[in-house]
Amino acid sequence: MEIIVLLLIALTAVSSAVYFRFREKRTLNSIRRMISQAKAGSFRESTYDESILSSVESEFRDFLLSVGVAETKITEEKDRIKELISDISHQTKTPIANILLYTQLLKEQELPESASACTAALEAQTEKLQFLIDALIKCSRLENGILSLNPAKNQIMPCIEDLVSQLKEKAERKNIGITVSGKNIQAVFDPKWTAEALGNILDNSIKYSPDNSSISITVLSYELFCRIDIEDKGSGIAEEDINKIFSRFYRSPEHAQAEGLGIGLYLARQIISVQDGYIKVASQKGQGSKFSVFLPKA
């Protein structure tokens, strides 16, 4: 009799183990299926028998559903932001263009000296407003993933030479020489937007360099990256400001009255980061600065 009881206990234990093992395996397979569907973006709520499903599986289902709802809301919000940015860009373009046109027409007239000064100031402020709106729109598009860059394998030297050509006149006004050295290395980048990022850095170097100085641009090749050094002999950056200069609208107190809006370096870092690159800065107060831009080779 005792043997039969022991056998029944053993049989019950084995059956329970098999049942719980089966239930555990089914639950894990169900969770694995949910994860696969969520990764593919096809997870949908189904009819579940709460008496069969484990509480973990049920809670995981609820979590995936909430994630799906949040993702949908984010997508909808991005669409609204995209539409808003498009409206701002469209609605401001024509009025600003008209103000500049009428200002130029006024400058062609014979005006009193005081009126000529006001006209020149109006033109300068309108151009500043146009630049600010364009920069803010670019930043918003980058931050919200609306603006798509198209990185591809390109030679870096043509991009740099075009950039130097565009800023040559500004440098010559201060008698600043710009030298370019290094090999024509291939890297993965979007030529248009990378030129804008490098242009913002070079423009700053010209702006803060003294007259009759020089700026060097050097292209170096690493195993995984192409490095572009832009080095000047300008006023340099205080150590406590190095991490701040990439913030939007940041202007150091000593340069608060200088030309610019404090958005160029912020935009440069955004553009380079989106392309899986990065920017490093080496600078000492009064001894110039070196900005190193790293672009991936693959």
Mean model confidence by pLDDT: 75
Order of adjacent strands in the largest pleated sheet:
2-4-5-7-6
Major sheet attributes? 5 strands, mixed
Shape: extended
Q: Estimate the strand proportion.
A: 5-15%
Estimated radius of gyration: 31 Å
SSE topology string? HHHEHEEHEEHEE
Helix content: 55-70%
Structural class of the secondary structure composition? alpha+beta
Q: How far apart, in Å, are the first and last alpha carbons?
A: 76 Å
Question: What does it look like?
Answer:
A five-stranded mixed sheet has the order 2-4-5-7-6, with helices on one face. With 298 residues, the chain is α+β, with helices and mostly antiparallel strands. The model has no long low-confidence stretch (mean pLDDT 75). The N and C termini lie far apart (76 Å). It contains six helices and seven strands, in the order H-H-H-E-H-E-E-H-E-E-H-E-E. It is extended and about 120 Å long. Helices cover 57% and strands 15% of the residues. Helix 1 (2-40) packs parallel to helix 2, helix 2 runs antiparallel to helix 3 and helix 3 packs parallel to helix 6 (264-274).
Question: Any descriptors?
Answer:
298 residues; two-stranded antiparallel ribbon; extended; 7 strands
